[in-house]
Design a protein that fits this description.
Elements (H helix, E strand, L loop, with lengths): L20 E4 L15 E7 L5 E3 L2 E3 L1 E7 L2 H17 L13 H9 L1 E7 L6 H16 L15
Antiparallel strand pairs: 1-6, 2-5, 2-6, 3-4
């Protein structure tokens, strides 16, 4: 399930090392214990290889996020992802707005790429770098990232 890959051909963040983990982020079978309780970023991409049209090209990336505790954050994502996957109308009966990333995740299923923090780097700086690289390549943020995701340098 957790295998190291050399790089992401569609988005080469940290090109020389590639992600630390790649796995299918399945709402039913994901085991949070496989993820370290440490800071880093995660990138969700469509598993079915569907791509989204951005102003400067197409990409399968849905969302770029960060956390000081990746295991905890991915467990939170799994909980909401599972609810939306089981019921696409989840939250609507109560007027609750569910972030669009979960609907994209449910529609396309997800592969997750994990990048752990190296040395003195901070998770927010790492996320900002990944978002900036994505923005420079596609002239847009990923479909699941909102305005609050703007890089903070």
């Amino acid at each position: 399930m957790n295998k190291k890959i050399p790089s992401l051909s569609f988005f080469d963040f940290r090109k020389s090392q590639g992600p630390d983990l790649e796995f299918e982020f399945d709402p039913e079978n994901f085991d949070p214990a496989t993820i370290a309780e440490c800071p880093g970023i995660y990138i969700f991409r469509t598993r079915d290889r569907a791509t989204f049209n951005y102003p400067a090209g197409n990409s399968p990336i849905i969302y770029i996020g960060m956390s000081e505790n990746l295991r905890h954050r991915l467990s939170e994502h799994r909980r909401t992802f599972r609810k939306v996957y089981e019921n696409p109308e989840y939250g609507m009966d109560k007027g609750k707005w569910i972030s669009s990333e979960y609907h994209y995740m449910a529609a396309h299923r997800v592969t997750a790429y994990i990048y752990y923090i190296r040395q003195t780097q901070e998770a927010k700086t790492m996320e900002s770098t990944a978002l900036w690289q994505f923005y420079c390549k596609y002239h847009s943020l990923p479909v699941g990232n909102g305005a609050k995701s703007f890089p903070k340098f």
